[in-house]
Amino acid sequence: MADDFVNLDKNSYFFLLQEVTSLREKLGRLESFQIRSEQQEIWQDLEERNRLLSGVATAANCLLSVTNYDDSIDAALAALGKATVVDRVYIFENSLHPETGEPQMTQNWEWVAPGIKSQINNPLLKNLPYKDFCPRWYELLSQGDAIVGIIKDFPDSEKEILTSQGIHSIFVMPIQIKNKFWGFIGFDNCHIEHQWSECQQLVLKSAVGTLGTAIARHQTEIKLRESQQFLQLVIDNIPQSIFWKDCNSVYLGCNSNFARISGVEKPENIIGLTDNDLSWEDSQFNFSHKWERERQVLQTGFAQLNIVETQKQADGQEFWANTNTIPLRNTEEHVVGILGTYEDITKRKQAEESLQLIQFALNRVQDCVFLVDSLGNFSYVNEASCHILGYSQAELLNMSVFDVDITLPRDNWSKIWDQLKQEKFLNPESILQTKSGKQFPVEISANYLKFNDKEYSCAIARDITERKNADAALKQLNEELEFRVEKRTEQLLQAKVEEQKLIALIEHSHDLITIASPDNELLYINAAGCKLLGISDYCQVKNETFRKIYSPEIWQYILQDVQPTLLKTGSWQGELLLKHCLTGEIIEIESSIFLIRDQQTQEHLYTASISRDIRERKQVELQLKQQAEELEKSLFELRYTQTQLIHSEKMSSLGQMVAGIAHEINNPVSFVYGNLNPASSYFQDLLGLVKLYQQCYPEPPQVIQEKIETIELDFLEQDLTKLLDSMQEGTRRIKEIVISLRNFSRLDESEFKKVNIHDGIDSTLMILRNRLKAQPNRPEITVAKRYDNLPLVDCYPSQLNQVFMNILNNAIDALDEYSKTLTFAGINVYPCYINIATERISDNSVTIRITDNGPGISQDIQDRLFEPFFTTKDIGNGTGLGLSISYQIIVEKHGGKLSCQSNCGQGTEFIIEIPITH
Questions:
Q1: Based on the domain organization, do 793 and 849 belong to the same domain?
Q2: 355 located within any domain
Q3: Structural domain tally of the chain?
Q4: Long-range CB contacts for residues 420-429, cutoff 8 Å, separation at least 24
């Protein structure tokens, strides 16, 4: 219950009455039980208890209603003393000895009945150690136990002390504050030996709880008040102006500095006011920006810090302030107000503005401005110094004058500094060096300064490169002027001589030389030019335009192409056509045209030209060109013929070799093939004889039976027949290959004769059979033949077979290369094939179409397909003559046609068309 009193308001008294009423009801039930035996005595006890409860209630009311803390305690003790009918009621407070730390007690409050001597001022009861008084009490009271009883029953050590004070009976209870033994309250009877009943003890313990709560509340108020006073003292001693408001912008407090600038006499006087309530001298002062900032802080919960702005005091004086507006939060992190601070930075702002003005002025100076200390180190450099020397400001501030002044000796610096201190100003010339190594002369104006007991030199270095250059240039100009006067005189004399030479050279030149004005008026033409143009007298064309000697087409070309180039570059060179003034003959010339300008102003003065008649040279060039073309053509034909001869010789040798091989193979193969039939017949006879022996002698001797088993006669009988059949098939195929080789070589058929074209195609396919077989990168190339019923055709069989061989070889090469670009699955979906179709398209014409499904041939390659030496294959894989020779064989030898039809990605088809008869 004591804890509940800590947070109670004025109605706490009624709460206490409810507790007392409840206690009375409990006591009433107890009394009802006791009335049965001792009714009269119980009524007396009941009256005593009612008196005690009323006293407790009165004491509680005093603690809650009396404003003065000490008075409230005294009134409560008086109410308790009268209610309990004791002689003395007192309260002792515990403390610790400052040196030994031993517990001790001090009497702070006391009530005594009339006639009883007060002990409140007894010095012996101040800081009295428990061990010197009653050691047992501290142990019992600290554990929450009460000390109650008749004094004569107490221990002798305690009895003597208590009896000396006239005490007959005593009731002491501990006072607990925040679960700590704070002190105790005592009730003394000095006239009677009073026995304290349990009911009385219970009621008084309740009163002690209320008393402890009041003491705790008072101590808290004291600490809070002291804390507030100290906090106000701290805030008042802060140099900034500080205030705090609630969420409605109502002032809750401020420090003395803010009260002063706001026109408030004391900080506490501002509580409950708003900005509009303050007596600002300037009634037009606008608080909107301040209120807006405070509103944003209250809404967002974010502080607005270090805002520099102008503020006004209540007297209207304006000052610069660094303002901070900070949200105030409660324990639940809710914004409940704001804290504002103003720091007067007027002097700092003025100093900054002055410094900025000086800095601005120094940075606008075009010369280098340095502040150098006594050791030669840079303390300040302006922007021009950084720009001119190529260093950043940070770099220069870590450098010294010796790093940039190449003429300043470090060893001699102390003497130079002493001279500057003595004379206060030096004005030498020196040479500075930039970061990139560039050096330039400067004039230095150095002053001696002393600031804060430190020595400095303010130096201004001005670039005098232009002045130095001007002095040097002036000196050089004077020297050159004298030299040029002498030189000019010499040049004038020499120019006169050169002019005479030039006139003689122009007049005797065989080239056409002209001079015209910028408007193309002809001002001069030499004698050779007059002769070339058929002009008898120069005066005939004087003041005429160039148009007089050019055809209209050439003149238009000069205006549109030559003249713009001439004006842009100053010269033009090329070939033109002149017109003979008498005959109108066109004269080819090689002309060089150039502008003559004023050497100083570059003004266009004249247009000059030097032209040479190139008609003879053109004729010679034309003849040489024709001869070169004829020679190139002859060389190409010779090369082509030579290549064909070599190829023919190779083919002839190859044909002879193939024919010889075919002949050599054919003889033994024919011998083998011819003997196979008799051998087969002999084998059958021998086999019949063996079977006859088996029938006649079913049980031969043991030796013969073992031999039969060893040679596996039954298997030998079957396998030998198959072996002979296989040999017969092999020799037959060899004979077909030999026939194909002979048909392909056709050495005996090199003349023009009638042949079956299909035989030539089949022979070629037989030879190419190995190339058509499956390869590692592709399956077998399928060949589909669709032959028409063709008659015998007049042709050169060997040459025609060569055409078939070239086209089919190219088709196989194309399919091989195309297969390399496909996956195995793609090849299976689109297998490689070659289609060969023959057809009679007229009474005297047949066509052979050879088609593949390779990558196709682009149009630009098709246009050059039959050119000699043109090939798309890698070097060493093709001569470029195969299709060229094939084209020559079909077109020139057979009077036919050879064409190609192809699209990229759609395969290629070669069409051979030849006549049946010639």
A1: yes
A2: no
A3: 6
A4: 420/446, 420/448, 420/457, 421/448, 421/455, 423/448, 424/448, 429/464
